[in-house]
Amino acid sequence: MDESSTIEISELIQHPANPDGPIPIVNAIAKSVFPLHHRRIKTKIRTAGAREATTIAKFNALLAWETERRRLPLARVTAGVKALLADVAKGTYYIAEVDGTIAGQLLITYEWSDWRNGNFWWIQSVYVAKPFRGQGVFTGLFEHVRSLAKKRKNICGLRLYMDAQNGTARRAYGRLGLKHTEYEVFEMDFVMQKPKGPRPSKA
d(Cα 5, Cα 102) in Å, to the nearest integer? Predict the structure, then answer.
């Protein structure tokens, strides 16, 4: 499957990081499965490669806008995705396909735990294209990653962080068996500034 097959123009979304023109996200195949909303659809989960970089970058920019109202420069996000895809030490992207269309994605990165003598896999950059939401795409990605992690003796667990206001995500993660911890995240960001304006509500 080449990159063009994942972004045929049938549904166009005006992307906040590219106000001069629309970005094609999913093709006509997505529309054919849209009536299956709330049913588990069949997906193919696989490791992403360089040819998926453009679609992954677009999904990441959409994710930032939908969850935090951040307008990410698409060129910078694309460079970041390509850098990771070229270096397995940085992490691994997994994608879910429906009839050849990229329906969703999930990234894992690594954190060494000396307490456990193993690596945590951090789940990041989770995104499911709108026509495929509520149909088990993220669950399929998560179950795939959990299965891989359990088979590797050097992996001690899975972790993720989420927007504290995202109740929908909180409930979804809880259903999958992830537990809330007592840890909080602090950071000092040298690249991105805090977004201005109200954040989207996800009760």
Answer: 9
